[in-house]
Write a structure and sequence with these properties.
36% of the residues lie in helices and 18% in strands. The chain has helices at 12-23, 41-54, 64-70, 81-87, 118-132, 152-164, 197-201, 212-220, 230-240, 287-298, 304-311, 315-327; strands at 74-75, 78-79, 94-100, 108-115, 135-138, 145-148, 174-178, 182-188, 245-249, 253-259, 273-274, 331-334, 341-344.
Length: 348
């Protein structure tokens, strides 16, 4: 950068900041209109717990501002877009999810819209897929084993990648579409023109990060793996159990399409084909209660005030829902109000 006559009064630090700002290329490094007050401290704490456990970060949580600064998510004390989508609950983008009766989008059996930060959206979308795919129960001499028709690790990787690499400047949201013959996970944002999905499957693709700050942050908590390994990991997980997966470049974005195997009663692995999942939330509770439980499952230390902000209803109403969930034996509070945590109970 050339310093003109009008810039001679600037300090070296101010000049450095101007250079950094001129070099800024990615959407996620731009300044957000959210402030530190919009950040969920509980989400940051839970993130740091995972990152410390993964041993990919060598410092501990102190406070929101210091922690985000150390993560490189602040610019001159202001939130970047990456900090907003990762740690602010009241983010406007949504993750659409639906189950369709056939192989197209003409008739849907169920439709949902999830809101929240990236980590919350990932958990909600992943849980939705697990809730609606088929599971076999294998009973041997040891503990019973529940086997999904699509590998859970492949689903988790696909959902995580769809959120990490999406085009956040596009108002269209991510999507999970469960059809009779396949499960599609879509994200807005086209694939790099000079590369194909097959390059990554063969391990010859190089990483082109649309959102480097988001990718780096999710890598540190083991929510994704970097270095262009995501598609290869999905492919290998599916190949190991004989599930076909397709990677589709569409006009507006990218789709990971899991082809559902044709399971029938008594075919393949022993046991019964079921539609239930160990971690699913029963249908008899309300949508708001499902959302509350999902937030608690993602972040057991979340406060009722933070839940109220995330769900968009008054805190006193959250307390009413919590009381009902406890009575239904779907929720337990471990420890005191301050310092304790939530335990979301599994289905019977």
């Amino acid at each position: 950068m050339r310093v003109g006559e009008s810039d001679k009064h600037l300090t070296a630090r101010e000049i450095e900041q101007q250079i950094v700002k001129k070099k800024r290329l990615s959407w996620d490094s731009e300044i957000s209109d959210k402030t530190l007050k919009d950040v969920s401290a509980a989400t940051v704490k839970e993130y740091m717990r995972k990152a410390n456990t993964a041993k990919r970060i060598n410092f501990k949580y102190t406070d929101v501002k210091t922690t985000l600064a150390k993560l490189g998510l602040l610019d001159d004390g202001k939130l970047t877009n990456a900090a907003e989508v990762l740690f602010c609950n009241r983010y406007l983008l949504e993750f659409q999810a639906a189950v369709f009766a056939g192989t197209d989008k003409l008739t849907f059996l169920d439709i949902r819209s999830f809101k929240g930060n990236v980590f919350s959206l990932r958990e909600q979308a992943e849980a939705y897929v697990k809730e609606h795919i088929k599971w076999r129960v294998e009973i041997t001499s040891g503990p019973r084993k529940e086997i999904p028709e699509i590998p859970v690790d492949a689903i988790r990787e696909a959902v995580g990648n769809s959120l990490c690499h999406r085009d956040y400047s596009n108002p269209k949201g991510n999507e999970v579409a469960i059809f009779k013959d396949r499960v599609d996970i879509y994200n807005p944002g086209t694939f790099p023109e000079e590369l194909s999905p097959n390059d990554f499957i063969k391990g010859k693709g190089y990483s082109i990060l649309r959102n480097p700050l988001i990718a780096e942050t999710m890598f540190k908590s083991e929510d994704i793996e970097k270095w262009a390994s995501g598609l290869k990991r999905i492919y290998e997980e599916c190949k190991a159990v004989g599930v076909k997966v397709e990677f589709k470049q569409v006009k507006t974005g990218f789709v990971v399409s899991f082809i559902r195997p044709k399971w029938e009663e008594g075919e393949g692995l022993p046991g019964k084909v079921t539609e239930s999942i160990p971690e699913s939330i029963p249908e008899r509770i309300t949508e708001k209660q499902k959302e509350i439980l999902e937030m608690m499952r993602v972040n057991p230390h979340i406060s009722t005030k933070e839940i109220a902000n995330g769900v968009g209803i008054a805190e006193r109403n959250i307390k009413v829902h919590v009381k009902k969930l406890k009575a239904m034996k779907r929720l337990k509070r471990i420890g005191p109000d301050k310092g304790g945590h939530w335990e979301v109970l599994k289905n019977d």
